[in-house]
Amino acid sequence: MLAKCKNDPYAIFCVLLIAIHILFANNQSAQQSVNRASPLKISRSWNYYSILSEKMPLFIQIYHQLELIVVGDSRAAWGIDPLNFFDTTNQAYPQAFNFSIYSAGLPAVEIQIRDYAFNLPKLKWIVYGISPRIFNKEWLSSGKQWQLLTASPGYKFDMDNPDSIWVNDYGSLISPTPPDYCCQNMTFWGYPTDLADKDSGSWMSDFDNPETERKLKELVQNGTFSLSEERIAQFDSLLAALQSRGIYMLGYTPPMHYFIADQPCTDDDGTTREGYDLVVNFLEEMQVKYSNFIFIDIDNKANNDFSSDEFWNFDHLNSKGAKRLTQYLNQYILSSEIRRNKGVGYPSQFHNTYLSNEEIDIYTIQGSFIGSFPVKRMKYGILPEKIPSTLLIIKGKQSQKHLEFHFEPNDVFFDFHIIH
Q1: Contact present, 314 and 259 (Cβ < 8 Å)
Q2: pLDDT tens, 296-308?
Q3: Tens digits of residue pLDDT in 56-72
Q4: Residue 346: which residues within 8 A CB-CB, separation 6 or more?
């Protein structure tokens, strides 16, 4: 082009044109580089009308490396600390992130998964803190958060400008850079740094006061529960979408303080004991239907093993409880990863083979007795002791049907398949 300019009577203008072209191209390239390396440089709103306003500026910087996200309501937001997932790599560079929104029902969670999680190139796991209330047609807060989310400036920008947010193509793991205007009380893993051991401003955490137990029980005396067919279909569809993408979901019921165990309701949202059972039965059916779904009834109607010093208030764990719960769930994740890497899938449960209230006996292949366990706790139950054999024989006490279990080295959990 310069050669042409030499013979051009208006050479000076030609040279200026070339210079402007080069300057524009370099500036455009530099701007693209800034945007790709620093998504926070984009002029936009980060207001999501929820706690996501504090999380998204971190999330959007590291989405390319996330292998696990946590979703759910505040019980999941405070009850799961993703720092304790996976191994030391995640503890240095976030590969797990708590994406939960306070008071989120299933509609809000589905939006988060379909509009955000499905854009994560390395996503393998979604850990969902499933409060039974999300399936209750009578729970009045079920629609609030998804309406707020979809109406927020942050969400609208993301949906209108996907090429401006899904731009991070780092080849290596990084730690996010918190902007000055937010995220000061949030770890790089999306967990609050300012969560106290107790909710000092509420009587609901004063577990040493004899009156607290009485007051909490008063909160859970009356409830109305009607299983929402719409939410049932919505959850089923979501699991199908995850399975088609090879993404696992680990669902669990967030633990409640034992003061409300054996009461007419299992929470202060009106979930009756019968309603709780309907939800658990449905989730267990989904575990049979979808090989990518694992469900653990951690709460068990407040009959769990979490102690008072692990609760922030009666229905939220503190950081101590969150660490223990996350480490417990991480055993499921790691055991599943070992099997997935070996190409070993999970078989269906066998509730149709054994009665749900039947106990089964476990023996080594040499005939040594290991123990008796309820069927409902067996698919992903912790090994009771070091197993001396890679093959177990499982016998039903009532039905006398047999199962064969192959134990892989370093596995933490049972699974088995029917052979008779």
Answers
A1: yes
A2: 999 999 999 899 9
A3: 999 999 999 999 999 99
A4: 291, 294, 336, 339, 415
Element (H, E) at 281: helix 273-289
Beta-sheet pairing, 68-72 with 96-98: parallel
Q: Angle at Cα 43 formed by Cα 107 and Cα 41, nearest 5°?
A: 100
At residue 327, φ and ψ (nearest 5 deg) are: -65, -35
Residue 286 confidence (pLDDT): 93
| Per-residue burial over 110-124, b = 16 or more CB atoms within 10 Å of its CB, e = otherwise | bbbbeebbeebeebb
- Give the span between the Cα atoms of 309 and 321, in whole angstroms: 8
Host H or E run for residue 274: helix 273-289
> Is 407 strand, coil or helix?
coil
CA–CA distance from 55 to each of 15, 60, 107, 121, 410 (Å)?
49, 9, 19, 19, 35
Q: Which pLDDT band, with edges at 50, 70 and 90, does 204 fall under?
A: confident
Give the integer Cα–Cα distance in Å for 179 and 58.
Answer: 9
Please tell me the distance from the alpha carbon of residue 160 to that of residue 371, in angstroms, as a whole number.
58
303-337 per-residue burial string, b: 16 or more CB within 10 A, e: under 16: ebebebebbbbbbbbbbbbbbbbbeebbebbbbbe
Give the chain's count of helices (H) and strands (E).
13, 12
Contacts of 108 (CB under 8 A, 6+ apart): 101, 145, 146, 149
Residue found by looking up tokens 């949030």 in the block: 186
Note the pTM of the prediction, 2 decimals.
0.77
Amino acid present at 44:
R
For 357, the token pair is 């209230």
In this structure, the chain runs to a length of 420
Write the CB contacts of 393 (distance below 8 Å, at least 6 apart in sequence).
362, 363, 364, 365, 402, 403, 404, 405
